[in-house]
Amino acid sequence: MSAPNPSPRLPIPVTVLTGFLGAGKTTLLNRILTTAHGHRIAVIENEFGPVNIDSELLVQQSAEVVEMTNGCLCCTVRGDLAKNLLDLKSRRDAGELAFDRIVIETTGLADPGPVIQTFFAEPELAEAYLLDAVLTVVDAVHAPRQLDEHPVLLKQIGFADRLLVSKSEGIAADALGALLNRLTRINPRAPIRPLVAGELDFGFLLDIRGFNLNESLLADETAATPRFRPAAKPGTIFGGAAHNDEIGSLLLEHLGDVDLERIGTFVQGLLDRHGDDLLRYKGVLAIPDQESRLVFQGVHRLAGFDYGAAWNDDIRRSRIVVIGRRLQEDELRAGFAECVINA
Ligand SMILES: Nc1nc2c(ncn2[C@@H]2O[C@H](COP(=O)(O)OP(=O)(O)OP(=O)(O)O)[C@@H](O)[C@H]2O)c(=O)[nH]1
């Protein structure tokens, strides 16, 4: 029997590890599992086909590994994912397993969207687990071509909370620079780091709380030197004409309040019309007569709203960041403009 779990009632953090075929997901996972960091990690491995090679490649002594084969998590075996997660939780509660976080390694072809949605769509899962972050490994050598040929890689990058570039030692500095620029255009929200030999920075990988509803949602974008690059002019938001990447991002911003009813209608309309194309969106809004920030975020059509920290002496402003496919910039800007309250 394993030692009792320290906090059986707290939600268990989950990290989704994604990246295209051969990007280096298992290599990274092995490094995570073999580093002494004090976390007890259970792993869910998903692979196409009847045999899970990845789980055989894993160093198993330190982790409980659940194998999911014969389909991809994002489509055929999504129900199994929920079942496996609940099963792991019951075994943990019963003292049969001891772990304090889960890493899910998806197949290289998986769209992370449905995997993410699983955690919000099923109340039992939402209570038991806390989706911490999506980590996406990007293969520096192959990504430029893969990005042109495989739209799912755009989604994997678009959904990421952290982008980890593998094999960067294999390419010239200017090619790496071009790739990093391209990644930033697709997803300006996610910090990027190369995966290099040596110690892993667990502060960068774990406990990111990328899906929490709080005012730090846009922390990176609201820093003194904004990491977020707003679209300069119409037509430039899709990662640039050079690559014709369909996934891009857009910042909607107003230095002041927005009308609650109008912004609700605007966001709802957006989800109704374009929900399939909205990968991630986050907003921090100032609402008249409301001392606290209204914070929202979502994935496709699943969105959550809540009031966060008080504005106090901070400048009231309203910002929405959208990462999506084929974003209709003019429509979004016009819709948002109708919601703002001009002092
Ligand atoms: N040179 C170099 N090779 C790497 C690096 N990371 C991973 N590899 C190699 O790339 C190959 C694929 O790595 P994996 O970790 O199996 O990739 P994966 O994303 O798990 O692959 P799939 O599960 O098949 O999608 C292996 O041969 C690794 O040794 C890196 O940073 N540099």
From TrEMBL:
Q: Which InterPro entries match?
A: CobW-likC_sf, CobW-like_C, CobW/HypB/UreG_nucleotide-bd, P-loop_NTPase, Zinc-reg_GTPase_activator
Q: Which Pfam families match?
A: cobW (PF02492), CobW_C (PF07683)
What catalytic activity does the UniProt entry give for this protein? Answer: GTP + H2O = GDP + phosphate + H(+)
Q: Mind telling me which Gene3D superfamilies this protein's record contains? A: CobW-like, C-terminal domain, P-loop containing nucleotide triphosphate hydrolases
Q: Which SUPFAM superfamilies match?
A: Hypothetical protein YjiA, C-terminal domain, P-loop containing nucleoside triphosphate hydrolases
Name all CobW C-terminal domain ranges: 247-340
**UniProtKB keywords:** Chaperone, Hydrolase, Nucleotide-binding
SMART domains assigned: CobW_C
The UniProt entry, under PANTHER family, shows: COBW DOMAIN-CONTAINING PROTEIN, COBW-RELATED
Summary of the function given for this chain in its UniProt record? Zinc chaperone that directly transfers zinc cofactor to target proteins, thereby activating them. Zinc is transferred from the CXCC motif in the GTPase domain to the zinc binding site in target proteins in a process requiring GTP hydrolysis.
Provide the family line. Answer: Belongs to the SIMIBI class G3E GTPase family. ZNG1 subfamily.
Which protein, by its recorded name, is this? GTP-binding protein
